[in-house]
Design goal:
Blueprint lengths: L10 H12 L7 E6 L10 H15 L5 E6 L7
Parallel strand pairs: 1-2
Length: 78
């Protein structure tokens, strides 16, 4: 029996494998966000920081859960 040497994967093949492994699950954590008009008076960077936090949770957890979240600034309980 003759063994054949395997060729190493090309850079393109490795890229495709990486992309497929990094794809979010079809059933992943998702947020439905509703922004209150009060968020318009939030400090600079609020939206960017909030979006970064949401992205962190959506990419860290893959539970098939949807969270409905009302977002406001400077208010408690409505």
């Amino acid at each position: 029996m003759r063994l054949r040497a395997r060729r190493p994967l090309s850079a393109f093949s490795l890229l495709i494998i990486g992309v497929l492994l990094c794809q979010p699950s079809a059933q992943a954590l998702t947020f439905n966000l509703t922004f209150d008009p009060s968020t318009a008076s939030a400090p600079a960077g609020f939206s960017t920081a909030f979006d970064d936090a949401i992205l962190f949770y959506e990419t860290t957890f893959d539970d098939p859960i949807t969270i409905n979240l009302d977002v406001g600034w400077g208010e408690v309980a409505g």
